[in-house]
Amino acid sequence: MATPPTTESRAKKSVTAVNHPDPVTMAGRRNQVAGTKLASSIAGKIVSDLSAAGWPEGTVFGSETELLQRYGVSRAVFREAVRLLEHQQVVRMRRGPGGGLVVGTTSIQSVTDAFMVYLVYIQATLAEVYEARLAVEEAAAELASQRLSEEGIVRLREQARQELAGEVTDHRQLHALTAHLTGNPALEFFVDLLNRVTLLYHPEKSRMFTAPVLSASADAHSKIIDSIVSGNATRARDRMRKHLQAEADFLGRRLPARPQLDTVFAASPEGAKLGESVARLMFAEVSAGGWHVGAALGSEADLMERFEVSRAVLREAVRVLEHHQIARMRRGPGGGLFVTEPGANAATVAVAMHLDRGGIEPADLFEVRGILEMIVLDKVIDKMDDSIVARLQDVLEVERGASRSEFPVVGHDLHTVLADLSGNRVLALLTDVLVHLTRSHGAVPSDALDPLPTEAVIHTHNAIVDAILARDGDLARHRMRRHLSALIRWVG
């Protein structure tokens, strides 16, 4: 979402949550839910087809008539599916001659916005973000030192020279460069994403990064660069960890533990649309007001009057809110704009789709999964109690009872459950993204020549859980690494 222009005085009236009775009958509600589920299913099929076609951005994927026939649904269901995908900026419907479903473009900012909305909703802590950063950036430093080219050496040395000379004001440059030099675009993306997320905790008027602070950062970066260039992977990893821990301690003493909305809504790019500005103000007030799911923000007429905007502008704002699952417009008597629960799914789908559209290889994704799941295992073992034991046993029991057709989905549940049990919601969200991608790529037909080895996966999952319950971190990590390496065969 683009941030609101400071000159938008007409969108300054407050959004007041008012509860209205819902006159929709139970039968009508069931029909509505069924229609939504079907539309969601069709949206998923469209995404799968677009992915198989290589995401031909800007081209017409088909006319409405052609796509209605292809997917065998009513016009109402199809248009709801398109609406869902428009919220995700996947497609847009172009009317008129030569029109149809146009494949949209993606941007890192739209993906980051989806991620940030969810973190604001759950009030993820700065400590959770830095724990995730430590996992991926330590690994990036180690891998960069092992995969460095001569060109990379030149770039790192120039980065060190510029920083020590005071020519660099963005202390994130070295982190981005290090990730890039790993040759893993998935790892590069997650490093970039987490660095952007860190900015959620910076007050708008923060002046913490003074010249002395940047000088100290440049010195730490120089030492990291020396380790990477010399090929000392262990020292590069240790120095990156030391640097990030020092940064986390420094910011932890000066920043609030929770995301700050005034940084989510920083100065907008020139030319931001009024609808986006209104949406961002609504988001701020929904969050500041306690995010009461189900509360009504007002009818379409009420909101048009409150914000002094046209119906077209308001509907543009609503599309932005619906895209991020902040609020949803309900039509008909007693309808209006109602606050919704974001959930991790919007962020997961947005990030997963961005990575898929980038053509990132399964091996790159599994390398990042391995990095994250190693720290997850350690945290679960450290937190071990009876509730964790019961949860792990439950997920194994569900696996054993799953049919072969269900297993490509159920068979990944252990990984998401472990991430959830880690207690770090940022790690859990990142893991969910990667598992989502694995599921979307790894749905092997049961009659395939090389089907997913269900029994082998169940056996391996049991072995991993056995090691966790025995609090044997080394063995659990060894078994998980071998398991993830084996899974690459059935993905892609």
Characterize the structure shown.
- The protein has 492 residues and is mainly alpha-helical.
- It folds into three domains: 9-108 and 263-339, Winged helix-like DNA-binding domain superfamily/Winged helix DNA-binding domain (Arc Repressor Mutant, subunit A, Orthogonal Bundle), CATH 1.10.10; 124-252, Four Helix Bundle (Hemerythrin (Met), subunit A) (Up-down Bundle); 361-490, GntR ligand-binding domain-like (Four Helix Bundle (Hemerythrin (Met), subunit A)).
- The chain is 63% helix and 4% strand.
- The protein contains 22 helices and six strands.
- It has helices spanning 26-52, 64-71, 75-87, 108-122, 126-147, 150-164, 173-180, 185-198, 211-229, 233-252, 261-264, 274-288, 300-307, 311-323, 345-357, 362-382, 386-401, 407-410, 413-421, 425-441, 454-469, 473-487; strands at 60-62, 91-94, 100-103, 296-298, 327-330, 336-339.
- The chain has a three-stranded antiparallel β-sheet. It has a three-stranded antiparallel β-sheet with strand order 4-6-5.
- Strand 5 and strand 6 form a beta hairpin.
- Helix 5 packs antiparallel against helix 10, helix 15 (345-357) crosses helix 20 and helix 16 runs antiparallel to helix 20 (425-441).
- The relative contact order is 0.11.
- The model is unreliable at 1-35, 265-271 and 442-450 (pLDDT under 50).
